[in-house]
Write a structure and sequence with these properties.
Elements lengths: L8 H19 L5 H11 L2 H23 L5 H24 L2 H25 L14 H18 L2 H11 L4 H25 L5 H10 L3 H12 L4 H21 L1
Length: 254
Amino acid sequence: MHDIFGVTPWEFTALAAAALLVGFSKTAVSGANTVSLAIFAAILPARASTGVLLPILICGDVLAVLTYRRHAHWPTLWRLFPAVAGGVVLGTVFLAFADDGSVRTSIGAILLLMAGVTIWRRRKAQAPETDDEGPRTGRVTARSYGVLGGFTTMVANAGGPVMSMYLLSAGFRKLGFLGTSAWFFLIVNSAKVPFSVGLGLIDAHSLLLDAALVAFVVPGALLGKWAVHRINQRLFEQLVIAATVVGGLQLLLR
């Protein structure tokens, strides 16, 4: 293990736990993988960690789609994709010039901002509740979250909390939330691969570490599938927001 980014057995154990949390977040509490992001960034160089984490996230996305594929709301996805594409391009340009400190600070600030905006909006007015039905949010809101989601997912694989905030503000309930999120990130994360390869973030060494970690995603996803029906809607939303705040603070304070 020492030959792969100098990872020690204890560090590999922490990365394995983070990979398990990725699986759990994809099938239970979307946004919780910001903790995984912070663990990867703490053990590996911040920029390099994004390349290692991306294939693990895609594995989790596949498992989430297999579990919740019937609950996606495709009009929401088509509304978001153009803005997300613009955000991915912006994120690619940013990564080409930014150092590790800039990456951590920028993403941490955005995550905390998104959590704050969502809490404020939910206190100001009760969001309409939907499940698989469409959300009631404006095009400007969708585009704003789409650009931020694309930027943060490209820069640090941190688009989960941004999109979680959008889906919560739109009033999605658990199954509609998870189904829409699953398809969104499978498509977006897969589209990011060529950009990450071009930036040198994914290479033979990162894929070797991925091969050792990806097996831990599966039990995490199974645990999430078991837990999601035992978490009520209010607790679900609180966990998503709390995970976003914790992830943002970890990035800012590191």
